[in-house]
Design a protein that fits this description.
The chain has no helices and eleven strands. The model has no long low-confidence stretch (mean pLDDT 96). By secondary structure, the protein is mainly β.
């Protein structure tokens, strides 16, 4: 199982970034995918989840209305469109995968997002 994040970088407040999580080594349709983030000195925070079976999407209150998760089943990829970025969005962003009913056992290496003027 492999998950590879990309798309991070440095952006000014109010800017946008699109993160991608390319997956391989498992049946994509059988796994839910989530994005987490961890800022220095803070606990890891789950920010968005997209289910595999019913397509249900959830967002943390901190990103609701600004971030959009999208699942590309043909490309085994999940994207996270991040708009109206704030300095408090600065963190390492990770994607994770879990089979239905299981735990978040599979992780990517992370991609750094920095929001600064």
């Amino acid at each position: 199982v492999q998950l590879v994040e990309s798309g991070g970088g440095t952006v000014q407040p109010g800017g946008s970034l699109r993160l991608s999580c390319v997956t391989s080594g498992f049946t994509f349709d059988d796994y839910a995918i989530a994005w987490f983030r961890q800022a220095p000195g803070k606990e890891r925070e789950g920010i968005s989840t997209i289910n595999n079976n019913d397509g249900k999407i959830d967002y943390a209150d901190s990103v609701k209305g600004r971030f959009t998760i999208h699942r590309d089943n043909a490309g085994n990829t999940v994207h996270l469109q991040m708009n109206s970025l704030k300095p408090e969005d600065t963190a390492v962003y990770y994607c994770s995968a879990r089979p239905t009913g299981s735990s978040w056992d599979y992780w990517g290496q992370g991609t750094q997002v920095t929001v600064s003027s």
